């Protein structure tokens, strides 16, 4: 429940700090006194957006802080999931700096607004007149029925299953599109792959073939050069080898004279061996040379095929062609893999649909069982509120479609008067009727929800007399299950409160400001008497006020 609220530098509030107790609290005050400012400040600390216009003094920061006792509401998991420190008395604080920057804290840990808003949903329900119109919304109606049916966990589980189901269907859509594209390209890719596979490609192949082509294309010139080289080296009269032998013989005669001469002789010997080996190698190459026009033609064809493929794929190496071949193999194989993956996904989607249908059927069953009791409770409460002939028909129809909370379609039908036809709630209920229906709904939900607190902002608009008295009794009865606040202009409701707070304006230092105070018993009598008769309080109004309070 809300334990305390402190506000500084917000709208017309200079500084305010107030403590609250459990049970039923009423807040009264003249129109324009600042009741909406209180709600605005509380909304701010619960995560609503704000701007510099919220600051009373533009050069100072605005601070709103609320203390909530959450010990009985099992919120530890929420705090753990959001990496927040849990405290039985949790402190929410919101600051708006003069720069316009906003900061939020939960137990002194910084949080973003979505986290603060989500936590706020567990702490307090601020019911405004605008929310009364939300009762016409089908999703709100489903939440009411599901709360009575105890369906919250089932609906949450359904929503999680539906999210997975949609993700699977999205994956299936993407894979199907890929398969469609792959099938369109499949024949062309297979043709390209066949072309590349027709040639045995390996690293360095192009260079080898080009070398062989160069050799076979110049056999005669190569033979002639080899023959000339062997002749110059090995001629018995003037060949290089014969000359080297003679040089070696000449040096051997003086090798013993000096170590240097011996070294020269050895070097000539080594050169002779090398030259002789080179000439032998030339001879061997010459013997291998064959004029083979058939082989030359085959090599030329291979090279031309490689050049054509390189031109087609806009690359300049065999290695690049090998990469392209590998990519094409992957694409061709991928189509088969896609078909397998699609088949697997379809099976998963089928199982997911079965799980969704089973969960939806359970949700539908519980809703169907809860609806008669809800209608009976609503009818009973509305009878107390001056609508004895009010009747409800809640038509629940299972559909083939998946919605966020199941597969049901709901028609929330209402008839206010005996003999009147049923119609959609949003079309046939007046504003005053909607307020009373909403109060009845909230009164019923108080027994089933674990919400710590609720604030009714002038839900009594348009009613008076005995109906107002009954509304006050209903709100007081709700306070046995939760903390209830009512902002009201009606003395019948104000008299029902365990605590009574008054919002008022005052002027200090030429500045108007709003404030809030808890009224004593005597002050309550005066306030309620004034609500009954105006500023000029009569003795009968005072006596009436005392009677209401008693």
UniProtKB/TrEMBL annotation:
<feature type="coiled-coil region">
    <location>
        <begin position="151"/>
        <end position="185"/>
    </location>
</feature>
<dbReference type="GO" id="GO:0006281">
    <property type="term" value="P:DNA repair"/>
</dbReference>
<keyword id="KW-0547">Nucleotide-binding</keyword>
<comment type="function">
    <text>May be involved in recombinational repair of damaged DNA.</text>
</comment>
<keyword id="KW-0175">Coiled coil</keyword>
<dbReference type="Pfam" id="PF02463">
    <property type="entry name" value="SMC_N"/>
</dbReference>
<keyword id="KW-0067">ATP-binding</keyword>
<comment type="similarity">
    <text>Belongs to the RecN family.</text>
</comment>
<dbReference type="InterPro" id="IPR004604">
    <property type="entry name" value="DNA_recomb/repair_RecN"/>
</dbReference>
<dbReference type="GO" id="GO:0006310">
    <property type="term" value="P:DNA recombination"/>
</dbReference>
<feature type="domain" description="RecF/RecN/SMC N-terminal">
    <location>
        <begin position="2"/>
        <end position="506"/>
    </location>
</feature>
<dbReference type="InterPro" id="IPR027417">
    <property type="entry name" value="P-loop_NTPase"/>
</dbReference>
<dbReference type="GO" id="GO:0005524">
    <property type="term" value="F:ATP binding"/>
</dbReference>
<dbReference type="GO" id="GO:0043590">
    <property type="term" value="C:bacterial nucleoid"/>
</dbReference>
<dbReference type="GO" id="GO:0009432">
    <property type="term" value="P:SOS response"/>
</dbReference>
<keyword id="KW-0227">DNA damage</keyword>
<keyword id="KW-0234">DNA repair</keyword>
<dbReference type="InterPro" id="IPR003395">
    <property type="entry name" value="RecF/RecN/SMC_N"/>
</dbReference>
<protein>
    <recommendedName>
        <fullName>DNA repair protein RecN</fullName>
    </recommendedName>
</protein>
């Amino acid at each position: 429940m809300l334990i305390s609220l402190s506000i500084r530098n917000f709208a017309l509030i200079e500084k305010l700090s107030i403590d609250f107790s459990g049970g039923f609290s009423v807040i009264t005050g003249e129109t324009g006194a600042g009741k909406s400012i209180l709600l605005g400040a509380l909304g701010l600390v619960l995560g609503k957006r704000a701007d510099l216009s919220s600051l009373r003094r533009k050069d100072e920061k605005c601070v709103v802080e609320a203390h909530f006792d959450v010990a009985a509401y099992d919120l530890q998991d929420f705090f753990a999931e959001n990496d927040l420190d849990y405290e039985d008395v949790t402190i929410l604080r919101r600051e708006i700096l003069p720069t316009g920057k906003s900061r939020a804290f939960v137990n002194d840990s910084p949080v973003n607004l979505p986290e603060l808003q989500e936590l706020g949903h567990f702490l307090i329900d601020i019911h405004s007149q605008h929310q009364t119109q939300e009762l016409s919304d089908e999703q709100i109606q489903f939440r009411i029925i599901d709360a009575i049916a105890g369906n919250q966990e089932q609906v949450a589980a359904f929503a999680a299953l539906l999210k997975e189901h949609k993700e699977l269907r999205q994956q299936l859509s993407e894979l199907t599109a890929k398969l469609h594209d792959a099938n369109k390209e499949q024949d062309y890719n297979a043709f390209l792959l066949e072309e590349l596979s027709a040639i045995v490609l390996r690293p360095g192949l192009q260079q080898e073939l080009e070398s062989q082509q160069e050799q076979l294309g110049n056999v005669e010139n190569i033979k002639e050069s080899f023959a000339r080289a062997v002749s110059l080296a090995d001629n018995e009269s003037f060949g290089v080898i014969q000359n080297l032998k003679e040089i070696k013989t000449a040096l051997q005669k003086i090798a013993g004279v000096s170590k240097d001469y011996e070294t020269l002789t050895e070097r000539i010997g080594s050169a002779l061996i090398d030259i002789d080996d080179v000439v032998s190698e030339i001879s061997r190459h010459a013997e291998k040379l064959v004029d083979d026009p058939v082989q030359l033609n085959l090599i030329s064809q291979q090279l031309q095929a490689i050049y054509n493929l390189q031109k087609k794929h806009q690359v300049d190496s065999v290695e690049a062609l090998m990469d392209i071949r590998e990519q094409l193999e992957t694409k061709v194989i991928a189509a088969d893999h896609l078909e397998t993956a699609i088949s697997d996904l379809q099976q998963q989607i089928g199982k997911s649909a079965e799980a969704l249908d089973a969960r939806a059927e359970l949700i539908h069953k519980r809703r169907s069982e809860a609806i008669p009791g809800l209608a009976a409770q609503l009818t009973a409460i509305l009878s107390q509120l001056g609508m004895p002939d009010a009747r409800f028909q809640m038509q629940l129809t299972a559909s083939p479609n998946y919605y966020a909370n199941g597969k049901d379609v709901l028609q929330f039908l209402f008839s206010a008067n005996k003999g009147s036809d049923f119609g959609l709630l949003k079309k046939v209920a007046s504003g005053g009727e909607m307020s009373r229906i909403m109060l009845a709904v909230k009164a019923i939900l108080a027994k089933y929800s674990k919400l710590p607190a609720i604030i009714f902002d002038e839900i009594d608009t348009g009613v008076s007399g005995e109906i107002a008295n009954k509304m006050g009794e209903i709100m007081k009865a709700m306070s046995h299950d939760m903390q209830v606040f009512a902002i009201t202009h009606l003395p019948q409701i104000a008299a029902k409160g365990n605590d009574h707070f008054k919002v008022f304006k005052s002027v200090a230092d030429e500045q108007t400001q709003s404030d809030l105070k808890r009224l004593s018993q005597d002050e309550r009598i005066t306030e309620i008497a004034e609500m009954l008769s105006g500023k000029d309080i009569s003795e009968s109004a005072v006596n009436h006020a005392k009677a209401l309070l008693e």
